[in-house]
Amino acid sequence: MNTLNDLDWPHVFRPGSSDRPVLLMLHGTGGSEQEMTGLADLLDPAAAVLAPRGRVSEGGANRWFRRHAEGVFDVDDVVLRAGELAKFIAWARHRYDLEDRAIVAVGFSNGANIGLALTLLHPETVARVVAFSGMFPLDDRPLTSDLSRTEAILINGRSDGMAPLASVTKLASVLTSLGAQVEQELREGGHGISATDVGAAAGWLTRCS
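Above: the chain's sequence. Below: its structure in token form.
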């Protein structure tokens, strides 16, 4: 594994309670690692927080992977960046003594998409994912991951033009076909995180703990 130190990948870490999971907080396009800590507090104030910064820049905006256009992902870059994130998590487990603690990926939009890619491609790294306004992040390449230990909640707006419902439906189908337990929450409206979304995610995290 590549050697990392605190300066190689900007991030926030809070240890939380040792009997609670680690929330891997993944920001959306243009976001930062700091802004995700408030959402973590709403989901589980006792959880540990590991919030890295996306290392791709799009016109100065932080992202997790490149895209060719709105909703058109550079899938080779998605795969590459998911692998890099998996290595960062392995480093963080050692650096912060997290070896036996469950890690839950919690992402919004672009952050949800990299969290989903991480789960699809590296299920041994993250087995639970909360995806706010996410969509299927890959293309039609074959997937052979065993997701029988994976749990996911997909939370989307029915009229979200940035994460079309057809892509969300495909995402749920692919996850299920690979053995994952998938819960879906659909609300009226578009891209974003509503109070009801936060409540649904917090309830799911409590049930899965």
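DSSP finds five helices and eleven strands in the chain.
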